[in-house]
Amino acid sequence: EAGVTQFPSHSVIEKGQTVTLRCDPISGHDNLYWYRRVMGKEIKFLLHFVKESKQDESGMPNNRFLAERTGGTYSTLKVQPAELEDSGVYFCASSQDRDSSYNEQFFGPGTRLTVL
Amino acid sequence: GEDVEQSLFLSVREGDSSVINCTYTDSSSTYLYWYKQEPGAGLQLLTYIFSNMDMKQDQRLTVLLNKKDKHLSLRIADTQTGDSAIYFCALDRGSTLGRLYFGRGTQLTVWP
């Protein structure tokens, strides 16, 4: 079974440009999460989709970030315009819907974004 | 202050035991997790503990949970060079299927 995949693995852009990150979750996983790790800091939650709906977007830093999950499959995270402080590693994770609160989230390898 | 705290670095010699510590402020978590990140890879769930347990053992891994002190630890017995990685403590803070709250990660370096 394929794991969570993310594209691209690395992206270097200039301040003011636009970047779109993509995440393909594990097939059948309704829950999809975006997280970000700024260098040396904790991994911070950005948002959570259940199928195509945004369940929790309380972690989105500002309106320069737009996440979509059309059709409830893959998701994109667009940063427009990018700022220097957006640099970091963006992780995507997915998990199955289940009755218990045990929530094993499967993570992708991350996209390393560098804004110059 | 941070909600989930971990020391940033730990170095041990191969064959020794490693203990990675995590302290947290919110006691509402149902499950507490340990994730491992190897260089160039994503996070991999290593183990977890249910909040009504004090200890869980899984081969070389022992998780201890002290709810009174809000302290979680991961002990790796007979540490190998392949255990070198970043280890993240993560909590759900009672959120069903929701977000996880992570620490900053502990970089474990194992010397031969």
Defining key terms:
heterodimer; A: 116 residues; mainly beta; four-stranded antiparallel β-sheet; 11 strands; 0% helix; B: 112 residues; six-stranded mixed β-sheet; five-stranded antiparallel β-sheet; 54% strand; globular
SSE arrangement:
The complex is a heterodimer of chains A (116) and B (112).
Chain A: E1 5-7, E2 10-13, E3 19-24, E4 31-37, E5 43-50, E6 53-56, E7 65-68, E8 75-79, E9 88-95, E10 106-107, E11 111-115
Parallel strand pairs in A: 2-11
Antiparallel strand pairs in A: 1-3, 3-8, 4-5, 4-9, 5-6, 7-8, 9-10, 9-11
Chain B: E1 4-6, E2 9-13, E3 18-24, E4 31-37, E5 43-50, E6 55-58, E7 61-66, E8 71-76, E9 85-91, E10 101-102, E11 106-111
Parallel strand pairs in B: 2-11
Antiparallel strand pairs in B: 1-3, 3-8, 4-5, 4-9, 6-7, 7-8, 9-10, 9-11
Q: In what range is the share of β-strand residues of chain A?
A: over 45%
> Which oligomeric state applies?
heterodimer
Largest sheet of chain B: 6 strands, mixed
What structural class should be given to the helix and strand makeup of chain B? Answer: mainly beta
Count of helical regions of chain A: 0
Task: Explain what you see.
The complex is a heterodimer of chains A (116) and B (112). Chain A is 0% helix and 48% strand. Chain A has strands at 5-7, 10-13, 19-24, 31-37, 43-50, 53-56, 65-68, 75-79, 88-95, 106-107, 111-115. Chain A is globular and about 45 Å long. The mean pLDDT of chain A is 93. Chain B has 112 residues and is mainly beta. Helices cover 0% and strands 54% of the residues of chain B. Chain B has no helices and eleven strands. The mean pLDDT of chain B is 92. The chains are: A mainly beta (116), B mainly beta (112). Chain A binds chain B through residues 3-4, 31, 33, 35, 40-45, 48, 50, 55-56, 59, 91, 93, 95, 97-98, 101-110, and chain B through 2, 4, 8, 30-31, 35, 40-45, 48, 50, 88, 90, 92, 94, 96-105.
